[in-house]
Amino acid sequence: MAFRYPNGKKYVSGRNEKKKKTVSKDARFSNRGMSLEEDINETNEYYLARGIAVIHKKPTPLQIVNVHYPSRSAAVVTEAYFQKPSTTDYNGVYKGRYIDFEAKETKNKQSFPFKNFHDHQIDHMKRVLEQNGIAFALLRFSLSDEVYLLEAAHLIRFYDERGSTRKSMKKDDIEAFGYLIPTKFHPRIDYLRVLDEQIL
Fold first, then answer.
1. 175 assigned to some structural domain
2. Which of 14, 168, 174, 191 has the CB geometry, 3.0–4.6 Å to 111, for a possible disulfide?
3. Can you give the pTM of this predicted structure?
């Protein structure tokens, strides 16, 4: 299915890259083939069920253009356009604070491409910070199954300093300024624990 922004440009998602499932020989909990989005959604359900936080994935408004009806009981959207550029993936409330974040993943081993982010998303994070909200990005290196929480202030700085030649953030910088989130069984990606211990 083809998705397009209102200006007609094609939408390319870095967070929905398919990845091969790898089996780890150690005893830690592995990704088990889930996408970053699925892991975060499961984590948010855990938080909600236990009254820890209310955080949801933002719905993306779409303008449906073409629908294929293979049978009377089934309909498949074959073409749609984004009605307006999206901001970030998730938002909600935790301990009385507004939370807003983007989730991205890459197959790169040593860098995270800036093309995964858009100017309007960075601008949105700046506005959240101006209102004393908490903004960040969850970045997964899918080949090593590592997830980092990178505060928006650092992401914005890296993005603004990228220039015309720098195409990505170095993993070394993400390791230096971000926080590695251990993958567990429940919750899968306990990013609120990082907020409690490192930011709040």
1. yes
2. 168
3. 0.72
